[in-house]
Specification:
Elements: H1 2-26, E1 39-42, E2 45-49, E3 66-69, E4 72-76, E5 86-88, E6 95-98, E7 102-106, E8 112-115, E9 121-122, E10 128-129, E11 146-151, E12 156-161, E13 168-172, E14 175-177, E15 185-188, E16 191-193, E17 202-204, E18 213-216, E19 218-220, H2 226-258
Antiparallel strand pairs: 1-4, 2-3, 5-19, 6-18, 7-8, 7-14, 9-10, 11-12, 12-13, 14-17, 15-16
Pfam family, one: Flg_bbr_C
Main location: other
InterPro entries: Flag_bb_rod_N, Flagellar_basal_body_rod_CS, Flagellar_FlgE/F/G, Flg_bb/hook_C_dom, FlgE/F/G-like, FlgG_G_neg, LlgE_F_G-like_D1
């Protein structure tokens, strides 16, 4: 009975939906996290009677065909790249992006990754790095005798050296933006990779070319809404239960058939 297999695809799809929702909820406090959502599509149809086929020699035709579907599948889990809330941290190396851009990060294998996580640190050599230790691209070195750091909305990084009353510019932060941000590949560590779907990175300075501006002493929180996620979770659970009932109903029908004398 096909109903068993059709309902099983529905259960598998809702199981994947719950996995996506659970990952969103788990990352509610992850800096710069962008929530994902599961998208579905129906599977192939068996054409029992094709619409428009002739029903007699006089030219009459079937106005609506007879099609039997074969279920559903999860087709993609795109990221929702909306702006998350920006919270004050009062830490001078915390930087939030207000806009479309991504920080660029140099990976050990030479590739460039992209992140919205602006919780920056200084490594032993004074380089600005992410919380996972990856250096920013282009690299910015903070002198060891710097007493404080200032980061302007347009990405200019300045340091107060020793007892100087005027800051010294030591670098320029750059941001990258993409035509299709949802096409970026997630690689963990709050990092994304460029793909053919995302298009090439368009690099520029903050406050220009739509990249957005920077806020020092702030961090962007995850754009996960707990109420929305719980509502989606309940809907997924109910859909899973309904598919399970279809399997139970189909099993009862098969049992009744087997008991016929």
């Amino acid at each position: 009975m096909k109903a068993l297999y059709i309902a099983s695809t529905g259960m598998a799809a809702q199981e994947r939906n719950v996995e996506v929702i659970s990952n969103n909820i788990a990352n509610m406090r992850t800096t710069g996290y962008k929530r994902a959502r599961a998208e579905f599509e129906d599977l192939l149809y068996q054409q029992v009677t094709r619409a428009g086929s002739a029903t007699s020699s006089t030219g009459t035709m079937v106005p609506a065909g007879l099609e039997i579907g074969s279920g559903v599948r999860t087709v993609s889990t795109p990221r929702v790249m909306s702006q998350g809330n920006v919270n004050v941290t009062e830490r001078e190396l915390d930087v939030a992006i207000r806009g479309e851009g991504f920080f660029m990060v140099q990976l050990p294998d030479g590739r460039t990754a992209y992140t919205r996580d602006g919780s920056l640190e200084r490594d032993p050599d004074g380089m600005l790095v992410t919380s996972a230790g990856y250096p920013l691209d282009p690299g910015i070195n903070i002198p060891g005798n710097a007493t404080s750091i200032a980061i302007s909305p347009d990405g200019v990084v300045s340091a107060y050296i020793d007892a100087d009353t005027m800051p010294t510019q030591i670098g320029q932060l750059q941001l990258a933006r993409f035509v299709n941000k949802s096409g970026l590949e997630s690689m963990g560590d709050n990092l994304f990779l460029e793909t053919a779907a995302s298009g090439p990175a368009q690099v520029g300075v903050p406050n220009a070319d739509g990249t957005g501006n920077l806020l020092q002493n702030y961090l962007e929180m995850a754009n996960v809404n707990s109420v929305t996620e719980i509502a989606d979770l309940i809907a997924a659970q109910r859909a899973y239960e309904m598919n399970a009932r279809v399997i139970s109903g189909a099993d009862q029908m098969m049992q009744a058939t087997s008991q016929l004398r």
